[in-house]
């Protein structure tokens, strides 16, 4: 298949997604060209010369409607992968009908899109890239008992404060604005704050150098969201697959769709409350071999089912 890949226009983690997707398309022996939507004339020239079967983009939020119309007039099928669902579903509902195929990372959003009348919408979570996320040796500068990589959402800050109060473990948080958000907690000598965005190549070292990685999800009711319907996310985030691919142990906030990818207690351990988390943190901190076995099984599962190659292959099979 000939695929025109149009980057979302976002930076940081999206640049990593772009690279992993392009590499996966190549490894699956499809032909691919990638042109930013901002380079309109170049993009049009590529469409004329390359004659793609489909044009694929992520989120679709930045794609000009004039470009969408033009591409469709060339007989090219438009495909969008909604990778921020359901947090910006107010925006995505306005544009799904511009695309021939819609893929979403969340089953709650999938239901909404089907109810909105789209005939070609499918659940497809983001994958992981084993070339980036793989086991590494423990490194002292990244080491911690408990680590949380991600944005300082209110529920995450409460969890960190709770664990600082209830345990004596060293805790590390990594991500933009943690320093600003955790003014009180930063007085603890057991808390390390790295208040900046880190690329995936560094994130894997934090994952592998922590005894336990905390993995919680973005709240559906966060005020920055565009989710007036209050659609509650049902699916697990891509960090789940990244941590697992790294061969690291994680405690993940429970989501109903967790069972679609992992067996609870065998390949993944979830928690449903702060008290449940505390109980499991204490247990697994003192059971190293169990952590290792669960992490090994999770990595094996991900490598067999949840890489970007698996996702792109499934997408292309559906379109075909």
UniProtKB/TrEMBL annotation:
<dbReference type="Pfam" id="PF12996">
    <property type="entry name" value="DUF3880"/>
</dbReference>
<dbReference type="GO" id="GO:0016757">
    <property type="term" value="F:glycosyltransferase activity"/>
</dbReference>
<keyword id="KW-0808">Transferase</keyword>
<protein>
    <submittedName>
        <fullName>Glycosyltransferase</fullName>
        <ecNumber>2.4.-.-</ecNumber>
    </submittedName>
</protein>
<dbReference type="InterPro" id="IPR055259">
    <property type="entry name" value="YkvP/CgeB_Glyco_trans-like"/>
</dbReference>
<dbReference type="Pfam" id="PF13524">
    <property type="entry name" value="Glyco_trans_1_2"/>
</dbReference>
<feature type="domain" description="Spore protein YkvP/CgeB glycosyl transferase-like">
    <location>
        <begin position="161"/>
        <end position="316"/>
    </location>
</feature>
<dbReference type="InterPro" id="IPR024542">
    <property type="entry name" value="YkvP_N"/>
</dbReference>
<feature type="domain" description="Spore protein YkvP N-terminal">
    <location>
        <begin position="23"/>
        <end position="105"/>
    </location>
</feature>
<keyword id="KW-0328">Glycosyltransferase</keyword>
